[in-house]
Every structure is written in structure tokens, then in C-alpha cells.
Amino acid sequence: MFKLNKTLAKDTFEICDLKLCKVLLMNDQNYPWLILVPRIKDITDLHHIPMADQADLMNEISKVSHALEKVTSPKKLNVAALGNIVSQLHIHIIARFENDAAWPAPVWGKTPAVLYSSDMSNELVKNLKVELN
Amino acid sequence: MFKLNKTLAKDTFEICDLKLCKVLLMNDQNYPWLILVPRIKDITDLHHIPMADQADLMNEISKVSHALEKVTSPKKLNVAALGNIVSQLHIHIIARFENDAAWPAPVWGKTPAVLYSSDMSNELVKNLKVELN
Predict the structure, then answer these.
(1) Under 8 Å between Cβ of B46 and B28
(2) d(CA B45, CA B88)
(3) Percent of chain B having pLDDT more than 90?
């Protein structure tokens, strides 16, 4: 059975479950940063997604990207499946701004996370839920 | 009309054209590193891919990933659409190894590129073409 990786669970807030993926908000106010986790057991790499789930994954990446864009109006989005440290397949969708803490570099390893206050994370989760429902 | 970005052209070797994407080999022997460029004019972000092309893109990411895995036998693959500097939409597919120059960090900005000799790049391009045809 699928079980969310403990590090992903610890570092994020749950937004919702789509048909294939769990949608999470990374607890880092440096960047509006969502994570999609396909609810498939023991999968680590994007190209190991079963053929039957590929269309759903692409749809959900697109849907979540549009929601994040609507809510945060970024310069652009960065989308990535890395997983060198946390091996459970997860797809980062990150809203990037020309004045953010890492621009124009990728966000990983650039600067320590700045945690949200509960008011801030609740507000963002609420707004994203509205767009995703 | 679609035209390949000059920086992408300069930094890579052409492997082949699939139905939607141009497939390129990054000129950096630190990592076996492919780049897919959808031949669509003026597109910068993954979620702006037309619905009609989404299935082709996902198929080609999967096909190219399997080819790269077959030819290089990596620990895992990293897949990413970033484009903060080169805005033309391009998808990185990078073979990662536990003893590579950046492991376990993402590859960007970690270490200067080490260029291939022509023998090395020709051999890799040839082997990848075999897998992709």
C-alpha cells in the first residue's frame, strides 16, 4: 500500500488528493512550492510510472501548475522530479520570481527554509484548494 | 516557426528529432545529460504545452529516459523543466550516479562542464540513436 515518505510528510502541508497524486505545500515561504506525490507503491523514477497513469500525471502537473500560477502570479514555474535524497517519486512545482532567494538558480540547496506562520500556510492552502476543486 | 535557442545549440550535440521534440546531448561528460526541446514556437513553461501535445511529450520523456537508462545504467534519472536563464522550454533528463560530480545534489551550478572528445560524444550519440530508433 502507498504510504507518504516521512520526510515529505514532515516538510509539507497537505492540500488535497487528486485522482493520482497527493498535493502538498512545502513549508518554505522563500518560494510558493508544491509537491505532487503519485499514490503508487515503491516508485522512484518518473519513467517508471505505468503507461495507464501517464495521462493522469501529466494532467495533474498541468492542473496544479495552473492553480499555483493563478494564486501566486510568478514569473515562471520550475517543474522537476529529482529524488536523489528522498527516493519516493515526487514532482516539485515551484513558483519562481526574479526577486526570490535563489533566482535565477534552481532552488535546491540555496538557502535554508523559512517556515510559514499557520495563518500564512492556512491561507495559501485554502486558496490553492479553491483553484484545485 | 520553431528555432532552437542559440545557447542550447552551442552547448549540445543533436541526437535526433522525435515526433514532438528535438533530442540533444549536453556537452558535459560529468553526467550523461539529455535535453528534450518541443518544436513549438515561443513556449517557455511545461504547463503551456497544448493539450494535444501532452501525451506525445510524456511518451517522449519516457522513451528518452528508458534509452538513457539502457545506454548508461545510472542509479536514477533526474527530470526537470527549469528555464530561468534559457527561457525556451527544454526538459533535462540526466543520468545520475552515486559517484558523480554533484551527487546527491542537483547538477546545476555545481561544477564546470567537462567537454567530450569527439570520439566520446560520437559514440554516445550513436548508442542513443540506436535505442531511440
Answers:
(1) no
(2) 8
(3) 99
Which ipTM did the prediction report?
Answer: 0.97
Q: Where are the domains of chain B?
A: 6-132
Distance from CA of A120 to the nearest CA of B (A): 26
**B residues 4-23 near A, CB within 8 Å?**
none
Q: What is the pLDDT of residue A98?
A: 98
* pLDDT tens readout for residues B26-46: 999 999 999 999 999 999 999
User: Considering the domain A6-132 in this protein, what is its CATH number?
Assistant: 3.30.428.10
Closest of A40, A42, A41, A5 to residue A24, by C-alpha = A5
Strand order in the sheet with A76-81: A12-17, A21-26, A33-38, A91-96, A76-81, B76-81, B91-96, B33-38, B21-26, B12-17
Are A46 and B59 a contacting pair at CB < 8 A? no
Task: For A40-53, write each residue's pLDDT tens digit.
Answer: 999 999 999 999 99
Interchain CB contact of B45 with A (< 8 Å): yes
**In this complex, do A108 and B106 lie within 8 Å of one another by their Cβ atoms?**
yes
